Hints:
Its EC number is 1.1.1.41. Keywords: Oxidoreductase. GO terms for molecular function: isocitrate dehydrogenase (NAD+) activity; magnesium ion binding; NAD binding. InterPro entries: IsoCit/isopropylmalate_DH_CS, IsoPropMal-DH-like_dom. This protein is about 40% helix and about 20% strand. Helix 5 packs across helix 6. It is globular, with a radius of gyration of 20 Å. The protein has two domains: about 1-95 and about 245-335, Isopropylmalate Dehydrogenase (3-Layer(aba) Sandwich), CATH 3.40.718; about 115-240, Isopropylmalate Dehydrogenase, CATH 3.40.718. By secondary structure, the protein is α/β, with parallel strands linked by helices. It has eleven helices and twelve strands. A hairpin with a 6-residue loop joins strand 6 (about 130) and strand 7 (about 140). It has a ten-stranded mixed sheet, with helices on both faces. A two-stranded antiparallel sheet has the order 6-7. It has helices at about 15-25, 40-45, 55-60, 80-90, 145-165, 180-195, 205-215, 225-240, 280-290, 295-310, 325-330; strands at about 5-10, 30-35, 65, 95-100, 115-120, 130, 140, 170-175, 200-205, 220-225, 250, 255-260.
Amino acid sequence: MTQTITIIRGDGIGPEIMDATLHVLDAMQLGLQYEDADAGLVALEKHGELLPATTMASIRRNAVALKSPLATPVGGGFSSINVELRRQFDLYANVRPAISFPNTKSRFDSGIDLITIRENTEGSYISEGQEVSEDGGTAVSITRITRKGSERIVRYAFELARSTGRKKVTIVHKANILKSTSGLFLKVAREVAAEYPEIEANEMIVDNACMQLVMRPEQFDVIVTTNLFGDIISDLCAGLVGGLGLAPGANIGKDAAIFEAVHGTAPDIAGQGKANPCALLLAAAQMLDHLGKPDDATRLRKAIVDTLQARDNLTPDLGGSGNTLSFAKAIASRV
């Protein structure tokens, strides 16, 4: 049975890392079909808008999309195309694994294998209630936390821990100071955690969590938290394992899911074949898990690890002399 996925090639290095990723997926002979859709600056040039209706319809129709980085112009319109996609499709769960890989520029050689699960649709990133006073002296932004949003993201974290055999969920908050918003999140998280007695649940204030991640990251398994804290923590975790070039992300909702490389468009190296495709390849592995192909996801991750271990055609950021496509071909030869 074939599966059609929406492909968004993105801006900057996006098309290069997407071509590399699809080369590997094709080598795996998974029966995937691709439907191209535009977003970002390339869509603005071709269609006059950043998120064309045809792209939204494609994602809605296929329910799964693989996305390269997008550039949002400075100025009016969307504050972020990614935020708009999450809002439009109610992609409430942002899932960011951080795993130690061999032969990377990492502060830790091994031992890190954790997942940050971030609430993706509310908190500090809502667009309503943001204003600046007429004299430019005061800015106000509303932070909104709901019981519904808190309950479903915490439940997602515990269900993921249960289904993948993980043993601990750390609830990260700032309820000691933000007693209403973070306090509600923590209250709901405790209620949900009580329904999963086989999984250890512990609580950590966000500033302590950041310190502990830097000092002893091996103590973490699954982290669940609110939007702003999760945004910061997930990038911190990427820094522990070699940077955003090895950081995939999944945005999961009830009716759709978008898988992406979380790094930027890197226009300074676009078109030069220097881009590391690992983040998007690892996002594709998350996509395969989502599609019910866990064995294929494992096969893809192992091929990436084996290629890093062999130092075969690595891109310059990983200390190699290969290019984007030669690195992908080396991975494809191992799947």
